[in-house]
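User: Can you fold this complex?
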Amino acid sequence: MPRSLLVVSAHAGDFVWRAGGAIAAAANRGERAVVVCLSFGERGESASQWLQGRSLDEIKGIRRTEAEAAASALGAEIEFLDLGDYPLRESPQALAALVDVYRRVQPDVVLTHPLADPYNGDHPAAARMALEARVLAQAIGVANSDGTLPAKDEIIGAPPVFFFEPHQSEQSDFKPDVLLDITDAFPRKRAAMECLPAQKHMWSYYTDLAIRRGVQVKRNAGPNLGLAHETMGEAYVRYYPQVTDVLA
Amino acid sequence: MPRSLLVVSAHAGDFVWRAGGAIAAAANRGERAVVVCLSFGERGESASQWLQGRSLDEIKGIRRTEAEAAASALGAEIEFLDLGDYPLRESPQALAALVDVYRRVQPDVVLTHPLADPYNGDHPAAARMALEARVLAQAIGVANSDGTLPAKDEIIGAPPVFFFEPHQSEQSDFKPDVLLDITDAFPRKRAAMECLPAQKHMWSYYTDLAIRRGVQVKRNAGPNLGLAHETMGEAYVRYYPQVTDVLA
Amino acid sequence: MPRSLLVVSAHAGDFVWRAGGAIAAAANRGERAVVVCLSFGERGESASQWLQGRSLDEIKGIRRTEAEAAASALGAEIEFLDLGDYPLRESPQALAALVDVYRRVQPDVVLTHPLADPYNGDHPAAARMALEARVLAQAIGVANSDGTLPAKDEIIGAPPVFFFEPHQSEQSDFKPDVLLDITDAFPRKRAAMECLPAQKHMWSYYTDLAIRRGVQVKRNAGPNLGLAHETMGEAYVRYYPQVTDVLA
Amino acid sequence: MPRSLLVVSAHAGDFVWRAGGAIAAAANRGERAVVVCLSFGERGESASQWLQGRSLDEIKGIRRTEAEAAASALGAEIEFLDLGDYPLRESPQALAALVDVYRRVQPDVVLTHPLADPYNGDHPAAARMALEARVLAQAIGVANSDGTLPAKDEIIGAPPVFFFEPHQSEQSDFKPDVLLDITDAFPRKRAAMECLPAQKHMWSYYTDLAIRRGVQVKRNAGPNLGLAHETMGEAYVRYYPQVTDVLA
Amino acid sequence: MPRSLLVVSAHAGDFVWRAGGAIAAAANRGERAVVVCLSFGERGESASQWLQGRSLDEIKGIRRTEAEAAASALGAEIEFLDLGDYPLRESPQALAALVDVYRRVQPDVVLTHPLADPYNGDHPAAARMALEARVLAQAIGVANSDGTLPAKDEIIGAPPVFFFEPHQSEQSDFKPDVLLDITDAFPRKRAAMECLPAQKHMWSYYTDLAIRRGVQVKRNAGPNLGLAHETMGEAYVRYYPQVTDVLA
Amino acid sequence: MPRSLLVVSAHAGDFVWRAGGAIAAAANRGERAVVVCLSFGERGESASQWLQGRSLDEIKGIRRTEAEAAASALGAEIEFLDLGDYPLRESPQALAALVDVYRRVQPDVVLTHPLADPYNGDHPAAARMALEARVLAQAIGVANSDGTLPAKDEIIGAPPVFFFEPHQSEQSDFKPDVLLDITDAFPRKRAAMECLPAQKHMWSYYTDLAIRRGVQVKRNAGPNLGLAHETMGEAYVRYYPQVTDVLA
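Assistant: Here's the predicted assembly.
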């Protein structure tokens, strides 16, 4: 069975800017990648559409379509929990739905937002839900959302969790401890960004960020990696300690 | 060329208790492992020998012999800079000697003490020297200790640095972010511990610690590792971000 | 249009002791100052009135009258959301009411409690609400409490937020990064304190604190400020970075 | 009136592993010790019973019986609030029930979980409830759960709060600032552990931990304590500053 | 043998303002109190005397006389190492002299400056020396300053270390975890302050601080302490965990 | 007398990349700006010149000439203390020379490196020296480097200190609390960058960084600043609290 990656995203666009490289790299390796968007970002991240006089349902529809296209460009599946944004609220129902996702996907790796973001409370809320659901999904005594108890092979293991990069890293106490080389995956990330036309000004912004993180990949790399010159990168923070049998 | 591991140890015994598993695992994989002891721990960690009325030189000799036996049991080379302990003092000469070691060993990985230890100032001093020498050894404009400039292939790359575990982890702000599975290497670590007869009471103490860290290896492991039941572990803290092309 | 200051206070008295100087200084400059009290402090900070056998409504009335007098002494408007205290609870309704306040006041500066206080959970709750409402009030897709969408000029900008001083600063991890000179405003602050007769013992306590913070104003001032000798001060912590075009 | 100790435990077993020594020591001194379990740990910490096909009520019953036996072995009273686990949810009703407990027990000392635990969200939830209820129970304006106001001697003072040790101390940012010598109390703690047969593998694990903390008791002790060789210990973190009239 | 207290003070006046209450309380209990001043504060804390045109030796003499009077008022012995200030420099000789002091005094408790102070680098330097000498004085292999090895009963145990309060507590990351009731000792502290006439303006400043810390003593005290109303306090931070056999 | 800005730079190029905007903005306002380079960066930051076989003196000369041109482009004076780099060593002589600079320049504002940088130990060393010299320069009892005592108007006040941005901000625990709008000054900063031809690849890197910080200037700005679209920025961290008489 191929490895699987689960990405828990507060709004419909976050996974592209912040984790598109990791997702595309997984897809390139033949792994399964599943994105779950807790909301569409319909109220807090769709200003231009509100200014055009669109209705709530129209805006949700537009965001959904764009996100599906971007996920497709990355090689990922996508689903939407439609929990509402600004604010995104934690609830028993939302948590149960997310537990079901974990048990269905059986992720080997989980990506989500970091736990602090002074500019957007939905991002930490998504992270708290992603973390809490991951723990609940491990417990055989915690029921599925339909009230049935999970079978022994339905509960999940202890997949590592990585926080992806917030918009203002230092203000969110985001100190990267993993620098991911996404050079080969970057063309797919760029293609996914271009599926989001309303945020065209961010295409170059996040391309520059990938270059910046790529410089750090090179500066921090060990001597034998032989990295090519035009390295592109993404930054992550581990939530749990790395388990390994070799220090490298 | 096989990978090489450099361990910078303040005193003659530290590398055994704190990093013996990592060292033996490297040796088991056919890698080169080099331990450099900055001092013998002759004043600060040899109380029983002083109480027996031995001289400074005798004590140094005993500690050297024991450390050589332990290194041998682990499969490592060992050398001694004899910089004196309690206190271990940083100096330009000591730093230059350590730069030479780095350039000679060309390490792929570096292990040393963490930067804080309220119980023993020599440990952070060793860490500061290990870190400073690593940066200097990278620079082509920094001379060797004999005054010659290094050739282009004598300078080192950017090997990752891992801090090994201090005696009282929490008091030293040691929050492990890497848990190393040393199950297969543990017999060699135990054998090395038994080369240090004056600290016999610590054999069981550090065996218990390996069990404790092993439990954490299991609790934090991803679902597909298939770890055996009797896992033994060591804990580490990375100083620089991990560079990788896959999140796991 | 004059600048405006919004102060979000958990209980009816907090704004006087902790931010009275900043409020009076703003009023002295001809700016608008608006205080919003989330509760009256009727359960948690009215022990003497409960001991006198007063009813809940009587206590609320007394606290309201005193707070109105204090606000008037400072030159500020005041309003009360009457959300209840001990505990002060965050709710969608409370948040919506606070969003309305932001959009109505259009503050240039926001003051509230810091995010930690081991002695009083209402204070951090007020801070969380003040911060969350500020972000929601910026979004054109977030409705007003009456369900209507805001017009383009009803949403707010990004006013800086300052946390005022808690009762036990160090225990609340309150490390001031702004020291405000309130020397000229202090007489109005003192007058406002004297509107709260039930806490007469705190008049001298907070006068002493103003002297203490004034000493720090002097110790940290640049050489050309020409501060008079009897400096009075208040301490604040910024939540967002300062934006400026001159370092000073 | 003898001193009294209140222990707020998320699940039915936590108090044994983490604070059994402190509880038994209090009982040995003739003090009153009361354990309140917020849940039975029926969903999150009873995997083996779910695998045996037991029902929810059966599992609760088993956990209750074991916890009562363990409390008895320690010399403590025990009660259960049955709030549900995985997740343990804070609610006004739960908080009011806990306020009643505080006012009934009038504790001189409070023990509970630390505020962070990345592996189990119920533990921090229990801590938040224990802390919030303690503050509410001090206020004469906060009603009892039956709606009556407390009499003057029903409210509580300001008992110190100690956090007991989580399973993975460093990952939970648990830096002990109190090391408790439990040598004399350890036999009762061991007896209490043995009342929990489903977790037999933890008996030796927590005995080893007591030895480890005992070594730290010795390393950190002042010169005149004359501690015997086989010291056993437990580690704690204070939440509020210690109040004393002698530095020692 | 009575208990003994060692106070390591960077300059000749620090011990009075910051730890006078603890010193006088120890003396009141019949304990030995020894103050060691590393410098006289002759360059950095004697501005008024320099402005009067006094010479370096005159200034040292004045500071010595005043400090001796203040120590006497507190009931303490005092000695001076005359290491120079602004900057106070750590050196092997200074450290050896301080090791001798430790071994001579055999302290049960040690007080010194905290490790951070952005306003005065001598204070952290004194703390580092006090801490390093304490560890060296424990080791039987570390010689006395005359080159002789210590006898078995000359080395010291592991006395707890408390940091006393810096001038700007929050800026120095000073978060008190011990609040000392100095009500009974305060008259001697005030008398000692009055031995320092050049800093007359600080008499009321530090009296106000004692009141402030006294309020916190009351706010944090357990219910059964029966503290009188006019409590005076001093604040401290422990460097090592407290060792105890009762939680209180 | 115009305001003056002092910039303490470890190597000959740092001030351009990291603080060129603040320097040029000061010059544009008619203020005096003085850069002091503690070393030329001759060993650690001149790899390409060593590879070309140049001598130490030649390299110093090249670096000096380039730095002078860059300072001139920014409108700043420049001087060199030639203390050596890799490692840059603190010494009494170096400190005394820097005290003289402070007293000569009488700065209203000081800029230097932050106190942590895991990639380059010279940067924190420069910061420590800049901070220590600033405190010594304030004391009338601290002599000038020629042994004379300073006159009353030769000592300095308490200028605020700002840390400029390190190469890898998060790894250096650099959390900006001041965002400086350098839009108008940026052309001079770019011109100064172009005076450093050996680091041509960094011209675009630091232009991108200015755009990135400019985006943050806009995101954090209050509503009335009316910032133009193409904002360029630099990030800073204050070391001492801001002193002000208006919150903004």
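Residues 4-238 of chain C form a domain with the Rossmann fold fold (CATH 3.40.50.10320). The radius of gyration of chain C is 18 Å.
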